[in-house]
Amino acid sequence: MIDKVSTVCVFVSDQERAKAFYTDVLGFELRGDNPLYPGAQARWLAVAPQGAETEIILYLPDENWEHYQQVVGKSQAVTLNVTDMESLVATLKSKGVTFIQVPDPQPWGTYAMIRDSEGNGLMLVEQPQI
């Protein structure tokens, strides 16, 4: 039986820069930072919001994953849940985060889109108040 999503990958061109963005700017926890295999330059770099079960792997495409190099800097179809959009937007703007889409209230929730350090688009969603 499958009971949860363990990881999702966001493909990056610079793991150290991405690590700094996700931990220092977004405030994620660093869950793991290990070589993919002995002698590898690329690492298994896992980050997640505090207390989250699902981790984001900041993956540097290597020769085995070259086909993913074309998606670096594109929308990664990752949605991050937000509990206070207004406050988060102010914090992220003060840290220089680029907004692709300013907060837009919809019946299903308020959403915004940001760019990470690698140019990837990430969606932020605050669920509607019931």
Key words describing this protein structure:
8 strands; four-stranded mixed sheet; alpha/beta; 130 residues; 2,3-Dihydroxybiphenyl 1,2-Dioxygenase, domain 1
Describe the structure.
It contains 2 helices and 8 strands, in the order βαββββαβββ. The protein is globular and about 50 Å long. The protein has a single domain, classed as 2,3-Dihydroxybiphenyl 1,2-Dioxygenase, domain 1, CATH 3.10.180. The mean pLDDT is 91. The N and C termini lie far apart (32 Å). It is α/β, with parallel strands linked by helices and 130 residues long. The strands form 2 sheets. The chain has a 4-stranded mixed β-sheet with strand order 1-4-3-2, with helices on one face. The relative contact order is 0.21.
Layout of secondary structure:
Blueprint: E1 7-11, H1 15-25, E2 29-35, E3 43-48, E4 55-59, E5 75-82, H2 85-94, E6 99-106, E7 109-115, E8 121-126
Parallel strand pairs: 1-4, 5-8
Antiparallel strand pairs: 2-3, 3-4, 6-7, 7-8
How would you briefly describe this protein structure?
The chain is of the alpha/beta class and 130 residues long. It is built from 2 helices and 8 strands, in the order E-H-E-E-E-E-H-E-E-E.
